[in-house]
Design goal:
Oligomer: single chain
Strand content: over 45%
Radius of gyration: 13 Å
Shape: globular
Number of helices: 0
């Protein structure tokens, strides 16, 4: 089992920045891809960014150039640096760890961007 705990959410004005953190515990994350997803009120959960065990990164088009995902495998941490935030980035952000059909999710952290 893997437990994921997100932190770093909050209220920020448009144009501001936040850094989300996800702390993993439990079994080793060797081979696991890590990622961030988000869910806005009344909408489905959507992909934001992922980082593979190899270090390869992917981003949703809506966040490219503004968000940066990174991981510290030794510390079992994954981060999401969010810059130039927009009101449409408002959502609950979830951390995900996945490999071979095994998916783990955190409880989420709220990000609210005011205009």
């Amino acid at each position: 089992q893997v437990q994921l705990v997100e932190s770093g959410g909050g209220l920020v004005q448009a144009g501001g920045s936040l850094r989300l953190s996800c702390a993993a515990s439990g079994r080793t994350l060797s081979g696991y891809g890590m990622g961030w997803f988000r869910q806005a009120p009344g909408k489905e959960r959507e992909f934001v960014a992922t980082i593979a065990w190899s270090g390869n990164k992917r981003y949703a088009d809506s966040v490219k150039g503004r968000f940066t995902i990174s991981r510290d495998s030794a510390k079992k941490m994954v981060y999401l640096q969010m810059n130039s935030l927009k009101p449409e980035d408002t959502a609950v952000y979830y951390c995900n760890a996945g490999m071979g059909g095994n998916d783990y999710w955190g409880q989420g952290t709220q990000v609210t961007v005011s205009s």
